[in-house]
Amino acid sequence: MSENKNNKESEAEPLPIFYSLRNCPYAMRARIAVFKAKQTVQLRDLVLSDKPEDMLIASPKGTVPVLVLSNGTVIDESLDVMLWALGETDPDDLLHRQLDNNKECNNIFDMLTLINEFDVCFKVYLEQYKCAKRYKEDNVEQCREACELYVKKLEQRLSKHLFLFSDKESLADIALLPFIRQFAQVERQWYLQSPYPKLRQWLNNYLQSSMFIKVMVKYPLWLTNNEEVLFGGNCQ
């Protein structure tokens, strides 16, 4: 029995390698999905000024996240990493496959549509807002109002239920979380008094959660010591 067990362990496939950057919102949401899906990966934290050669070979565009599966498949878009993780295991039903009575979100298509709207449009306005504030430009208010067109939609959704699509957490919630976190940090005092109480509650619940604290743990940089760090699964 023990010999068979040892043989199985030696034949086990190597864990996926996951290149990440701690505060990058795209890498952050990918890490959240991996954590939520209880998938175990080899985490390699880095800084963009010092990119590992192996990562650049796998994904020449040089941005994170990059997930290299044991069979050599490379996934280098954050949403694709999220869908891979939840496609493997989805213990919290973030894809809402088990939600039959949800009229607002009948399937994954609705979630992806909302995520795409924020990835393509909101993110552009958010970057302009951040830059205007950082460089003390005179159009901060206009940039913020452009972002608010999208933020208001989330407030409306959260006025109906606890999460963006229902009273159950979804892929959309964890996909948008890092970007709303950034929005809240640009003009902190304005945000705390803004007419978005439901959004603030939603965001605070995430930021104060044990999940978020674990996902945001600071690990040694991979290129500093090449130390293997296991992330997700039962490692936390």
Give a quick rundown of the structure.
The chain has 236 residues and is an alpha+beta fold. 54% of the residues lie in helices and 8% in strands.
Strand content: 5-15%
Elements, N to C (H/E): HEHEHEEHHHHHHHHE
CATH class of the largest domain: Alpha Beta
Q: What would you call the structural class? A: alpha+beta
What is the alpha-carbon Rg in Å? 19 Å
What's the total helix number?
11
Structural descriptors:
Glutathione S-transferase Yfyf (Class Pi), Chain A, domain 2; 5 strands; 5-stranded mixed β-sheet; Glutaredoxin; alpha+beta; 2 domains; disordered N terminus
SSE blueprint and pairings:
Elements: H1 2-11, E1 17-20, H2 25-36, E2 40-45, H3 53-58, E3 66-68, E4 74-75, H4 78-88, H5 108-134, H6 140-158, H7 171-186, H8 188-192, H9 197-207, H10 210-215, H11 222-225, E5 229-232
Parallel strand pairs: 1-2
Antiparallel strand pairs: 1-3, 2-5, 3-4
Helix pairs in contact: 2-4, 2-7, 5-6, 5-7, 6-9
Descriptive overview:
With 236 residues, this protein is α+β, with helices and mostly antiparallel strands. The chain has two domains: 2-93 and 213-232, Glutaredoxin; 108-209, Up-down Bundle (Glutathione S-transferase Yfyf (Class Pi), Chain A, domain 2), CATH 1.20.1050. The chain has helices spanning 2-11, 25-36, 53-58, 78-88, 108-134, 140-158, 171-186, 188-192, 197-207, 210-215, 222-225; strands at residues 17-20, 40-45, 66-68, 74-75, 229-232. A five-stranded mixed β-sheet has the order 4-3-1-2-5. Helix 2 (25-36) packs parallel to helix 4 and helix 5 packs parallel to helix 7. It starts with a helix and ends with a strand.
